[in-house]
């Protein structure tokens, strides 16, 4: 019923969106006398904001065609899928000269948004590395016969992706995937896997959520697993390829994040309206571009979502040495030659200070020279991997770390 109600609401908003768009165009039409008045301009701006807010969204494109390398030359960028799996694909951003650069796997969050949320991360690393990314699939589009996807399968995928990329590559996990990425490094380290990553960088990840709990962490611990299963898990409707699959809908995740900072989001839309009224199209488009990405959401499988709630946020299994992968405990001390870089944002309201740094403490088999910590002052969660501070202050640290271990 939850998903059906959402689909019905979308149908209504789709019609309202069309009417708002038509109304805006009429209010700006040069044959309409009102278009030359201040009230006409304000009406058009208001309708533009509503049309943008209510517009249905699908999966965005990365859209890379070129990048500027170290000597200032523009080189072409080609997106190619090098490995397809039911719940995601390994995508490579090929550029001229990439063969001589460090191979970097960026592990995108499976937390309700598409991998394109890391467009700014990819763009910054393209001139430096041969960049790959986990391009996760919307669970509602995966047929039930393709099986389940939980943390075991997540780790399997990362290992297989690293095998595809080859030995002595590097891995960057942004937010949620810090846990499965760290676990994959443990599993591969324990077996001496030849494709274990040379470095693992973790940004704003929930390795140990007992450290500086945030509102997100508390929301996950204040209710039982049964409550989550009864209240936020829905069945995919018949109109999708994944019909019948039980999922945590992306629209619920988005609603939760929006509610956490509702004042900020309302103010952003008001500022967008003001920019449109003032004729500042560039500022308005910047806000629109952010929300285009932010509101593009996808679903997670029931088993992955519930296991993450239980094992990561409620029981803290990884830092306690109790996380199970394929029947065996994940041993953090098994990481012996994968250098770890933990990055946190001072103002991160998703993963609190100390949660990612905990990975350095539990990796007891790794020498101190292969561990590094960076606290990015004045940076929130999104700013760790996107924006000016990421480009100018954080990425250079990561690049230096990779260079140090690029053998």
What does this structure look like?
The chain is an alpha/beta fold. The protein folds into 2 domains: 2-56 and 250-294, no CATH class; 66-218 and 300-404, 3-Layer(aba) Sandwich (Rossmann fold), CATH 3.40.50.1820. Helix content is 42%, strand content 17%. The protein contains 13 helices and 14 strands. The chain has helices spanning 2-27, 38-54, 119-125, 151-165, 178-191, 215-221, 225-231, 250-260, 262-277, 281-294, 302-314, 358-362, 388-404, and strands at residues 66-68, 74-85, 88-95, 103-107, 130-136, 170-174, 199-203, 234-235, 246-248, 300-301, 324-325, 328-329, 339-345, 371-376. The strands form 3 sheets. A 9-stranded mixed beta sheet has the order 1-2-3-5-4-6-7-13-14, with helices on both faces. The protein has a 3-stranded antiparallel beta sheet with strand order 8-9-10. A hairpin with a 2-residue loop joins strand 2 (74-85) and strand 3. The longest helix has 26 residues, at 2-27. The chain is globular, with a radius of gyration of 22 Å. Mean pLDDT is 83; it is low at 12-17, 19-24, 40-54 and 272-277.
Write the layout of secondary structure elements.
Layout: H1 2-27, H2 38-54, E1 66-68, E2 74-85, E3 88-95, E4 103-107, H3 119-125, E5 130-136, H4 151-165, E6 170-174, H5 178-191, E7 199-203, H6 215-221, H7 225-231, E8 234-235, E9 246-248, H8 250-260, H9 262-277, H10 281-294, E10 300-301, H11 302-314, E11 324-325, E12 328-329, E13 339-345, H12 358-362, E14 371-376, H13 388-404
Parallel strand pairs: 4-5, 4-6, 6-7, 7-13, 13-14
Antiparallel strand pairs: 1-2, 2-3, 3-5, 8-9, 9-10, 11-12
């Amino acid at each position: 019923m939850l998903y059906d109600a959402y689909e019905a609401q979308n149908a209504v908003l789709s019609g309202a969106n069309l009417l708002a768009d038509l109304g805006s165009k009429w209010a700006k039409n040069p044959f309409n006398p009102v278009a030359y008045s201040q009230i006409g301009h304000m009406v058009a701006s208001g309708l533009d904001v509503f049309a943008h807010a209510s517009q249905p969204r699908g999966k965005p494109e990365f859209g890379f065609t070129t990048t500027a390398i170290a000597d200032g030359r523009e080189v072409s960028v080609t997106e190619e899928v090098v490995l397809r799996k039911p719940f995601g694909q390994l995508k490579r951003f090929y550029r001229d000269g990439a063969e001589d650069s460090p191979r970097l796997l960026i592990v995108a969050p499976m937390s309700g948004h598409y991998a394109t949320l890391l467009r700014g991360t990819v763009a910054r690393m393209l001139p430096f590395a041969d960049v790959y990314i986990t391009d996760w699939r919307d669970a509602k589009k995966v047929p039930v016969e393709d099986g389940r996807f939980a943390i075991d399968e997540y780790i399997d995928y990362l290992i297989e992706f690293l095998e595809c990329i080859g030995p002595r590559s590097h891995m960057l996990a942004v937010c949620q995937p810090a846990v499965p990425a760290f676990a994959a490094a443990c599993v591969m380290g324990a077996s001496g896997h030849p494709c274990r990553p040379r470095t693992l960088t973790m940004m704003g990840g929930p390795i140990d959520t007992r450290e500086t709990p945030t509102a997100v962490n508390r929301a996950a611990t204040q209710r039982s697993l049964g409550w989550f299963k009864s209240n936020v898990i829905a069945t995919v409707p018949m109109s999708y390829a994944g019909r019948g699959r039980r999922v945590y809908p992306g629209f619920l995740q988005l609603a939760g994040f929006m509610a956490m900072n509702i004042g900020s989001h309302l103010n952003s839309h008001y500022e967008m309206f003001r920019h449109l009224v003032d004729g500042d199209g560039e500022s308005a488009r910047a806000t629109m571009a952010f929300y285009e990405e932010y509101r593009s959401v996808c679903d997670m499988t029931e088993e992955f979502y519930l296991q993450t709630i239980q094992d990561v946020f409620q029981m803290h299994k990884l830092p306690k040495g109790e996380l199970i992968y394929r029947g065996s405990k994940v041993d953090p001390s098994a990481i012996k030659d994968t250098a770890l870089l933990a990055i946190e944002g001072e103002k991160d309201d998703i993963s609190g200070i100390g949660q990612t740094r905990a990975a350095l403490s539990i990796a007891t088999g790794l020498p101190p020279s292969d561990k590094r910590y960076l606290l990015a002052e004045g940076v929130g969660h999104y700013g760790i991997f996107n924006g000016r501070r990421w480009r100018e202050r954080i990425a250079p640290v990561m690049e230096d770390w990779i260079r140090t271990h690029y053998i």
